[in-house]
Amino acid sequence: MIVYGSGLYGKTDEVPGLFYVATTFGHVWFLPLFPLVSCLVIDRRDYVRQVIPIRFSCKSMLLGWGRTGTMVTAVVAGLTALESRDPATGMMAACICAAALLAFFATKLLHGIRFATYERASALADLAGVDATGRIFIAVRYGRMSTGEAREMLARAEAEGLHETERYVAARTAETEARSLEKGRVG
Fold first, then answer.
1. 14 φ/ψ angles, rounded to the nearest 5 degrees
2. Confidence of residue 170 (pLDDT cuts 50, 70, 90)
3. Which of 9, 98, 118, 181 could make an SS bond with 32 (beta carbons 3.0 to 4.6 A apart)?
């Protein structure tokens, strides 16, 4: 039985709680073979992912292949270390296994690989259509704004939103009243 299809690999440029970049790869047995398209994956609270195709991300592609390659290397080297009858070969295979695991976890944990820079986060926010609240969240996350400033801006945005809603309701009410008066004149 051959398992094949496509899937997202190479998660990078993450802004926790908002989005991240990944690349869709064609895979066989869940080993990514060829990249198809890079995507902006928007995290949503209802566990439904929204995926937006973006310009190709070499970083995501290399991480997709690299993470898989390091895990395959770790498994093969680990099995070689366990099966080897020669102590020198076993020790070399164990060192290769450890190095591959270290490389894998480094790609998952290192800040510069895992998370987006402020500039990249802002550019991706433009693509995702992030609202004012999300932009304030990004500014706070990257230290461009204090939490006090963020609270003030959120309160101002909420007040402006309420004023906008009030203006919309007033306009619709006036429109409805005008139609009622017009019907009264015609009838």
1. -80, 140
2. low
3. 9
The letter for the amino acid at 79 is L
The DSSP secondary-structure symbol of 168 reads H
Q: How many DSSP H helices and E strands does the chain contain?
A: 6, 4
- Bigger pLDDT: 182 or 116? 116
d(CA 52, CA 112): 23
- Dihedral of CA atoms 171, 177, 182, 183 in degrees, nearest 10, equals 130
**Contacts of residue 87, Cβ cutoff 8 Å, sequence gap at least 6:** none
**What single letter denotes the amino acid at residue 34?**
F
pTM of the model: 0.76
Dist. CA 4–CA 39, nearest whole Å: 20
Structural domain boundaries in the chain: 4-141
Angle at 41 between CA 38 and CA 42, to 5 degrees: 155
Q: How far is 102 from 68, CA to CA, in rounded Å? A: 13
First to last CA, the chain: 76
Higher pLDDT: 166 or 23? It is 23
